[in-house]
Amino acid sequence: MALIVQKYGGTSMGSPERIKNVARKVAKFRAEGHDVVVVVSAMSGETNRLIALAKEVAATPEPRELDVVISTGEQVTIGLLCMALQDIGVKAKSYTGSQVRILTDSSFTKARILEIDEERMRRDLQQGSVVVVAGFQGVDADGNITTLGRGGSDTTGVALAAALNADECQIYTDVDGVYTTDPRIVPEARKLDTITFEEMLEMASLGSKVLQIRSVEFAGKYKVKLRVLSSFQDGGEGTLITVEEDSNMEQPVISGIAFNRDEAKLTVLGVPDKPGIAYQILGPIAEANIDVDMIIQNVGHDGTTDFSFTVGRGDLDKAVKILDGVKAHFGARELKSDKTMAKVSVVGVGMRSHPGVASKMFRTLAEEGINIQMISTSEIKISVAIEEKYLELAVRVLHKAFGLDGGEA
Amino acid sequence: MALIVQKYGGTSMGSPERIKNVARKVAKFRAEGHDVVVVVSAMSGETNRLIALAKEVAATPEPRELDVVISTGEQVTIGLLCMALQDIGVKAKSYTGSQVRILTDSSFTKARILEIDEERMRRDLQQGSVVVVAGFQGVDADGNITTLGRGGSDTTGVALAAALNADECQIYTDVDGVYTTDPRIVPEARKLDTITFEEMLEMASLGSKVLQIRSVEFAGKYKVKLRVLSSFQDGGEGTLITVEEDSNMEQPVISGIAFNRDEAKLTVLGVPDKPGIAYQILGPIAEANIDVDMIIQNVGHDGTTDFSFTVGRGDLDKAVKILDGVKAHFGARELKSDKTMAKVSVVGVGMRSHPGVASKMFRTLAEEGINIQMISTSEIKISVAIEEKYLELAVRVLHKAFGLDGGEA
Question: A243 touching B, CB under 8 A?
Answer without folding.
Answer: no
